[in-house]
Amino acid sequence: MRRISSRKGSRVPLAALLLGALAALLALARLAFPSAFLAAEAPLLSAGGAFAGSFGGVSAGFESARALEEQRAALAAQNAALEEENAVLSAKLADLAALVGAAGAGAPGVAAGVVARPPESAYDTLIVAAGTGDGVAAGDAVYAAGGIPLGSVTALSGGYARVTLLSAEGLSTEAWLGPAREPITLVGQSGGAFMAEAPKSASTTPGEEVYVAGPGSLPIGTVAGRAGAASAPFDTLYIRGALNPASLAMVLIRPGAPAWGSLAATTSAP
Amino acid sequence: MRSAVSRPLLALALLGPLLFPWPLCAALALAAAFYYPFAPAVAGVILDALYFSRGAAPSWGLWPHGAPLYTLCGLAATFLALLVHRFVETSIMTS
Fold first, then answer.
1. Which of A27, A52, A125 sits opposite B51 (nearest CB)?
2. Are A169 and B45 inside 8 Å of each other by CB?
3. Interface pTM (ipTM) of the complex?
4. Considering only CA atoms, which of A40, A75, A261 is closest in space to residue A165?
5. In which element (H, E) is residue A150 found?
6. Which chain A residue is nearest to residue B50, measuring alpha carbons?
7. CA-CA-CA-CA torsion sign (B16, A161, A248, B67)
8. Is A25 part of the contact surface with chain B (CB cutoff 8 Å)?
């Protein structure tokens, strides 16, 4: 009995010491050498993602082949419909560009692969494989495919950057609501979701688009729901992001494009 | 037998931020706290070191550009784990 308690007594302080040293080392490395830390962590995250993904590949093998075949057929039909819609929109865009000039078309950008994304990323941040070596700077705006605004670059190393998403908890962004372009302030709720307040008199309905300023009005999400007490002057709008950050594979960083809302103040802070 | 469970659990809790979604990391860290009370604090520091960025969390008190939430939650969980460990040890000694 004495031996067991003696062994336990000697093991716990040593473990605590080692764990404390590890935490202190990591915190010091992150605070003292942020760029080097980002450069060192990104390959580890990439390897970790590949390792975790291999488990997903194994589990996918157990899914029903019939279900996969049905899903493939549905996706093929959806793809054909989208191709047609894309052709119509491309023709419309060409007409508009000829009419008003192609301002913003072919804007320079750096395409970057996403190394880590939510929910692996504990905050609404991305680690992307482009850094100062690619001409990226702190505060540059980041877009998803289709010109959907995502967020801004907030930390950098030579080959990697950390991007804070507009949907980060508590982050506020000025936006417009619906075809009437009513001004609202989006507040990030994590996971690509937002909340906002709108006057009770606003005729907002679920499904309306929400836009932020950029080169034109950029769609950032749609109203998913509206709630509020009858006596309150404002209603709370629940806004679903235009895309799921967990499914991001590539992003476009536009050097020189300004950050949005409170991210601009954050990225320019000392 | 105990170390056969506790050491892999601790390893998973510390490597989890590289491999798993954060809710699973939090669950692993809390499970590891049963054996190693400091595990949640270290897991929180790892999560913040890897993913925290300016503006990514609400500003609060000492942190005008966002509080390191996972480190703070980890420290709170470690404090609770130490209290529980002390309580369990005292209960065993008095019984």
1. A125
2. no
3. 0.78
4. A261
5. strand A148-156
6. A41
7. positive
8. no
Q: How far is A134 from chain B (nearest CA, A)?
A: 20
Q: What does the pLDDT average to over A11-34? A: 83
B contacts of A20 (beta carbons < 8 Å) = 38, 42
pLDDT digits (tens, 9 = 90+) for A35-50: 888 888 888 888 887 7
Lookup: tokens for A6: 């003696």
CB B19 within 8 A of CB A48: yes
Q: What percentage of chain A has pLDDT greater than the value 90?
A: 9
- CA of B31 to nearest chain A CA: how many angstroms apart? 16
Contact A158, A131 (CB under 8 A): yes
B19 touches chain A (CB under 8 A): yes
What sign results for the dihedral spanned by CA atoms A59, A62, A64, A69? Answer: positive
Long-range pairs, B79-82, Cβ under 8 A, ≥24: B81/B33, B81/B34, B81/B37, B81/B39, B81/B40, B82/B37
Contacts with A, B 43-62, CB within 8 Å: 45-59
SS (H, E, C) B24-57: HHHHHHHHHCCCCCCHHHHHHHHHHHHHCCCCCC
User: What is the percent of chain B with per-residue pLDDT over 70, rounded to a whole number?
Assistant: 97
